[in-house]
Amino acid sequence: MKAAFLAAGLALAALTGANAQETFTIGLSNGWVGSEWRTQMIEEAEAAAKAWADKGVTVNVVVQSSNVDVQGQIGHVRNFINQGVDAIIINPNSPTAFDPIFAQAKAKGILVVSTDAEVSSKDAIYVGIDQKGWAMKSAEWLAKTLDGKGSIVTINGVAGHPANQMRVEGYQEVFKGHPDIKILNEANANWDQAQGQQTTQTLLATYPDVNGIWVQDGMAAGAWRAIMSAGKTKDIVATGEIRKDFLDLWSKEGLTSGASVNPPGVMASALNVAVHRLMGKEFKDDVFGGVYGNAIYIPIPFVSNENLAENLKAAEGKPGYWSVTAQVSIDEAAAFFK
């Protein structure tokens, strides 16, 4: 009888543990709110959490989204640790500064997933696009469109940001392979459209014979406005933007442009991977790569004149700030696991 009660107790404990694993709380940390892209990122992650209900899993999210420096975002992570969340998904402001706090999270049994920018911590994983590959894809498009020769300028995001740095490394590597393409100047405009327009105006005045502009999203619409104002729409080839308002302009003006897509759905993708891991699944042996060996890269869509109409159709009914997006679904995320 005693053995029977013990067996029954163990069975009940196992059942209770299984049920407990059907509910998770995940903290979402966004350390910069300077663009609608980040807003869409959070919204898509929240929607992805709700979608797990169809699988019988409750995923609650706690969001900390504000303009903070690295120390402020470390505070986000510390708050999540104190709240006892099951996982933290972070769009980090530094690739290396979070190592100590991520170690603290792991010590508490909290899964840490970075997205949008890779991190060096061995106590975290990364789920998102290869930012260097993102830049290489659009740089190759620009080089091909210029037939491998000409003078260009580049306009980058926030200096020192990990994603920005990887993008710079990406295009520099590509253009080194095209010796007849000369980079006249490399400027920063902080992923801000207005700054992108002003910076482009200055560059066009300084280099009136420039043939191409490699510009990161978040600033491309501003750059193209400056190109149009200078009457150089037919003379300059430039990378573009994935926002609906720019796609509309692109189509209306018949621009020659191409844009790598860093989808706002990256945080939703990270969340779907995180939930599978929280449910006890083990990663496949060969799933990780990247700069720090802890990255799961997801596909990078590309918008060009060839598929512009298709992307405009997907954007129908969306506000102007909506960005072309994609995400790794719940079922697709399962493919990363054994």
Structural write-up:
This protein has about 350 residues and is an alpha/beta fold. The chain folds into two domains: about 1-130 and about 265-300, Rossmann fold (3-Layer(aba) Sandwich); about 130-260, 3-Layer(aba) Sandwich (Rossmann fold). The chain has twelve helices and twelve strands. The strands form two sheets. It has a six-stranded parallel sheet with strand order 2-1-3-4-5-11, sandwiched between helices. A six-stranded mixed sheet has the order 7-6-8-9-10-12, sandwiched between helices. Strand 6, helix 6 (about 160-175) and strand 7 form a beta-alpha-beta unit. The longest helix is centred in the N-terminal third of the chain and has 19 residues, at about 1-20. Residues about 1-20 have low confidence and may be disordered.
What's the short version?
The chain has 338 residues and is an alpha/beta fold.
Describe the largest sheet.
6 strands, parallel
- Give the percentage of residues in beta strands: 15-25%
Q: Mean pLDDT, as a whole number?
A: 93
Write down the domain tally.
2
CATH superfamily of the largest domain: Response regulator
Can you count the helices?
12
Global morphology: globular
Q: Give the low-confidence spans.
A: 1-20
Q: Residue share in helices?
A: 40-55%
Q: What spatial order of strands do you see in the largest sheet?
A: 2-1-3-4-5-11
Span from first to last CA? 40 Å
Structural class: alpha/beta
> What order do the helices and strands follow?
HEHEHEHEEHEHEHEHEHEHEEHH
